Amino acid sequence: MIITRDNRLHIEQLQTDESIFATQNGYIGVRGTFCEGYGTNGLRNGTFINSFYEEYPYRYEENLSGFAQKGQAMIHVIDGQGIEFYIDNHPLNMESCDVVSLHREFHLYGGYTTRTIHYKTPSQYEFILTEKRLTSLEQPELFVVEIDLQSLNYSGHVEMRSTVQQPQFSNTLSRDPRIGKTHNESFILRDIHISDDYGCIQVQTKHSKLEMAVSVTHNIPVQYTHNDKNITATAHASLTENEHFTCRKYVIYTSSNYHSNYVTANNILRQQILKNQSTDYFEQQRQSLTSFWKTCEIAIDGNERLQLIMNYNVYQLHTSGGLDSRFNIGAKGLTGDGYEGHHFWDTEIYLLPFFVLTNPQKAKTLLLNRYHNIEAARQEALNLGHTRGIKIPWRSITGRELSPYYPAGTAQYHINSDVAYAVIHYYYATDDMSFMLKYGFELLVETARTIYDIGHFHNGVFHIHEVTGPDEYTTCVDDNYYTNSMAQYHFQFIVDFYDKHASLLKSLITRMQLSDQEIKDFNQAAESMAIIYDETLQIIAQDQTFLSKEPWDLEHTPSSNFPLLLHYHPLQIYRKQVLKQADVLLSMFLLDFEDKTIMEHSYDYYSNITTHDSSLSKCVHSIVASALDKLSVAYDYMIDVSEVDMSNTQRNTKDGLHLANLGGSYMTIVYGLAGLRIKPDRIILCPRIPHDMNGYSFTIQYRQSIITISISDTIQLTSTNTVDIELYGNAITLQKGTILDYPLG
């Protein structure tokens, strides 16, 4: 499986493809720039380390109580991509030469990218430069780039300059809150030194005080030099026509937020590389992905492009994070600096459904990140006036709330129940009781306490006031359906789990000072939760006042004015009936809403007033459309979801891949068309095939079983262990090692 792109040379295309061809492994991410650079057109390389950030102060003209005071941003770190070539002192790049052709590939089975570019110099000499690169999955600190320069008609001297340099910034001013902020001169040089076979830079961030070491070595003789910021390795060669010059470059990244002694760790890895230069890291990468593709590849019969993009999305999800419970996955992964590298609820609602079914250990690791930051979340709850419980930050890197705009940030208390939902979902899929007793139940209770605290009983009904749901075009409302329904599910699970396993929870109950009365309070809140149903429209209302607002005139809004958030004052948006993204419908999907008539009416109503300005939206509409047997609509949405980054439909792929949308694309197949749902004692399947597709298949992990699900004219199921399945409402026991053939409903 290979993603290919040809002759995309405009700046916008280059920036988009930097994200598309970014390689990441959960620890480091390297954007797909050209090793030789672009010239002086202002584009810059990008290399990131997960959760390696700088701090900066927020500035408010009216700084009120409880506002976040400091921001954090994942920053561009020391960059080791650069390999420049000079032909008779003339640089070989797209600014100084003509580009005859450009061909790029992302080898999904191999986990690496290649780029072949044909240059013609002003002197009419022609060269083909091939670059092959990876971020190692076996050794996460390692970035490898291999280059091959072929002379087509030149004979003479060639100079290679391989660099390791501090990031260069071009200041850009933008009101777009999705774009990462520029932080110039973030580093203090701690040390820079060279030897005969390597160079190394050590730096520290000015404010967060994080430290890192970056060293470089090559498989050919080079001469290392340095100034006060950068290292350059120089090599010289004489080429004749059709002769090749090749070099492999190894760049090692170690940092203080991962390694207790980052300098020693860097030295050890570099020495290993120098001793084992015969290692084929590209073959090693391919082999390390063999088991992944056996259990994670998605097959789609009838649309090769969709199949290819789905598997690209799956690969980028797999490599985005989940290596270490100290760190989460940012909204752009490690493919760009959009949203400043912050993680959101995206992890639990859009990424965890993939990891739970394909790599439960990564799912657990990501949930443990929330647990390990529980004290920071407790402090945020205190900051917001809560005497008990925790408040999961809306956007964060280290566990601290970083949202400076509370109406569309901190007010999204539903993130507490989003984390709870992910814990429950993981537990149902894995039956990991040890996790629940050590971490999960505590997370559930602490997040529930804060949700309970923002609600109150009025005339026997439990209301939750002044919250924002997933739809960020409607803020600080009362009884948002998504928030309330997720809280109801959250509370009810706690009650049921407590009743069933109280004897196993004794020590935890004592430590948390959890009383029977508090459990009763949760139960009463769940049973009395305010859910607003509009009798006239026969739909679930998004909140107490949403349906009384004037609808936004979407039909006459210029296409250039989307997304609305960049063109209209927030109050102008908040006063209207208009959605940025799925809200009621998201709850209906996650909680498996049973009344199909109400669901269909709600779907039809909200679909007409949803802008899909968020990339998190269309996947939900696809899944709900599948549940309602609107298969052509579901399929169209699925295509739209798959093309968000490949076709840059949101016009901001340059800032990094939309990780939540990648997870959403997976869900449109597995949770949408296949109708998969995970219940306490079984999995449910309700497979469908749209007319534009002949079939599809995928594999999931469920409670120590690997289950392959193939949908075509019939349904074929196999499992490595015996499991209980509900298929179209019929209870079926899938026997270990047998093939179950079932008619398509």
UniProtKB/TrEMBL annotation:
Alphabetized PANTHER family for the sequence: GLYCOSYL HYDROLASE-RELATED, GLYCOSYL TRANSFERASE
GO MF entry, a single one: glycosyltransferase activity
Keyword Hydrolase: yes
Binding of substrate, residues: 345-346, 580-581
Keyword match Phosphoprotein: no
Keyword vocabulary terms for this entry: Hydrolase
Family membership: Belongs to the glycosyl hydrolase 65 family.
Domain Glycoside hydrolase family 65 central catalytic, chain residue ranges per copy: 312-666
Domain Glycoside hydrolase family 65 C-terminal: 676-734
Organism: Candidatus Xianfuyuplasma coldseepsis
Entry protein name: Glycoside hydrolase family 65 protein
Gene Ontology biological process terms from the UniProt entry: carbohydrate metabolic process
Active site: 472
Glycoside hydrolase family 65 N-terminal domain span: 7-256
Upper lineage: Bacteria, Bacillati, Mycoplasmatota, Mollicutes, Candidatus Izemoplasmatales
